[in-house]
Amino acid sequence: MPETSHLRLAEEYRVIKRPILKNAFNKGAVPVDKGNLVMVTSSIEGEGKTYTALNLAMSIAMELDCTILLVDADFTMRSLTKTLGLETETGLVDILHDKKRDMGDSILATNIDRLKILPAGRKTRNPTELLASSRMAMITEELSRRYPDRIILFDTPPVLAATETASIMHHMGQVIVVVESSRTPTDVIKSCIAHIDDDKVIGMVLNKSRFHGKTGYYGGYGPVE
Q1: Average pLDDT in the chain
Q2: What pLDDT is recorded for position 216?
Q3: For the residues of the chain, what is the DSSP string, one character each?
Q4: How many C-beta atoms lie closer than 10 Å to residue 169's C-beta?
Q5: Residue 186 pLDDT
Q6: Quick one: which of 112, 103, 111, 90 has its CA closest to 147?
Q7: Alpha carbon of 162 to those of 42, 95, 147: distances in Å?
Q8: What percent of the chain has a predicted confidence (pLDDT) above 70?
Q9: Residue 131 in contact with residue 169, Cβ under 8 Å?
Q10: Residue 210: CB partners within 8 Å, gap ≥ 6?
Q11: 140 has pLDDT over 60
Q12: Regarding beta strands 150-155 and 214-215, do their DSSP bridges make them parallel or antiparallel, or are they unpaired?
């Protein structure tokens, strides 16, 4: 990617993260419960949610006053885990299965000081039940309250493609919906939004939009009206 494209991409993610940070630390107009728990999702597969989650996490890690934990909560595709080459590492699935397992043992440091990763962990046949469990509720509560200076960003399955997304959504404060420009039909986007809990702060990221004849990865961030 040319240097100008890198610079543009970095600036675009600065724009995306700013309202997320305000909501995470209750600096917005309205306080957000568990605002530091943020899920990145999409309507359907292939819209770039994992790419967006990873780039957003790296951008947030550049902040001076907060840290970021990026969690792979898409237990079926495990795209984030695969992208980072962490298939053999323990992760969230293992923590949910084993109540004695210390979460800190599965959180991995990166070469970016303020960014840590929690992989998906081992494969599972019951992702919905795991994410709907009381242990998941306890874990998200602990993450939200124990680390007030940390944003926990979850890469989750698409809303309309997996039942487990609704299970994890209940624990979140913010929901970021990635939409692929010129591909995702409007009625599909509306259906996706209708599936999101009313008490969540919803933002949308337009992915793979065009600028001056060139393809970019971000077209806009904004609340859903």
Answers
A1: 89
A2: 39
A3: --HHHHHHHHHHHHHHHHHHHHHHTT-SSS--TTTTEEEEEESSTTS-HHHHHHHHHHHHTT-SS-EEEEEE--TTT-HHHHHTT-TTS--HHHHHH-TTS-GGGT-EE-SSTTEEEE---S--S-HHHHHTSHHHHHHHHHHHHH-TTEEEEEE---TTT-THHHHHHTT-SEEEEEEETTTS-HHHHHHHHHTS-TTSEEEEEEES-EETTEE-S---EEE--
A4: 19
A5: 92
A6: 103
A7: 11, 21, 29
A8: 90
A9: no
A10: 181, 216
A11: yes
A12: unpaired
Domains defined along the chain, listed by start: 3-181 (3.40.50.300)
What is the predicted pLDDT for the residue at 48? Answer: 92
Query: In degrees to the nearest 10, what's the CA dihedral of 22, 207, 200, 24?
Result: -20
43-64 pLDDT tens trace: 999 999 999 999 999 999 999 9
Overall residue count recorded for the chain in this entry: 225
- Per-residue pLDDT at 97 exceeds 70: yes
Exposed/middle/buried for residue 152 (C-beta within 10 Å: 0-12, 13-18, 19+): buried
Q: Tokens standing for 143?
A: 């993450």
Q: Is the pLDDT of residue 29 over 90?
A: no
Q: Are 20 and 134 in contact (CB under 8 A)?
A: no
Note whether 74 and 20 are within 8 A (CB): no
Q: What is the pLDDT of residues 128-139, one digit of tens each?
A: 999 999 999 999
What's the Cα-to-Cα distance from 120 to each of 43, 88, 149, 180, 216, rounded to whole Å?
21, 10, 23, 24, 29
